[in-house]
Amino acid sequence: MIYRYLLACFIFLSAFYAAAQNKPFGLMTDLLKNTGTVFIGGYPSSVTPEEAVSAIESVQMAEILSEYPSLSWMVPDNGRNTRQTAYRIIVSDSQEQAEKGVGNIWDSGWVNSAQSVSVKYGGAPLIPNTLYYW
């Protein structure tokens, strides 16, 4: 099926950014968009990544082949000279943990940086065929 190589499907959650007034968008893993979307016949579907494992249909998902992927996001511009001054990335193997802001796989801590493109994942090597949330 789709999990032939190292798959680290990142589901993009912005719940841990709830405290931020201007939430990032356009989240990417290794500069791939829609890595949390399940496709059927080349079209986005309502099937969740968790459901894709047991789906009857032939489904497609982006495969992240790196054990240490690069993470990227876009900072919204609300017309008032908005800029990023820090970031915190959490990676979890549970959606519930990620929504609570708990990175049980990796937590970058607050990093004072304007970097938002190709921020290297800094945790333990990601495991093939595992679903991760960030």
Characterise this structure.
With 134 residues, this protein is mainly beta. The protein contains two helices and ten strands. The chain has a three-stranded antiparallel sheet with strand order 2-6-9, with no helix packed on it. A hairpin with a 2-residue loop joins strand 3 and strand 4. The longest helix has 5 residues, at 95-99. It is globular, with a radius of gyration of 15 Å. Residues 1-20 have low confidence and may be disordered.
Q: What fraction strand? A: 15-25%
Mean pLDDT: 76
Radius of gyration: 15 Å
Span of the ends, CA to CA: 24 Å
Main sheet: strand order = 2-6-9
Outline the fold blueprint.
Layout: E1 8-11, E2 25-29, E3 39-40, E4 43-44, H1 49-52, E5 59-60, E6 70-74, E7 90-91, H2 95-99, E8 106-107, E9 119-120, E10 130-133
Parallel strand pairs: 1-10
Antiparallel strand pairs: 2-6, 3-4, 3-5, 6-9, 7-8
Brief synopsis:
The chain is mainly β and 134 residues long.
Name its key features.
10 strands, single chain, globular, mainly beta, 134 residues, disordered N terminus, three-stranded antiparallel beta sheet, 7% helix
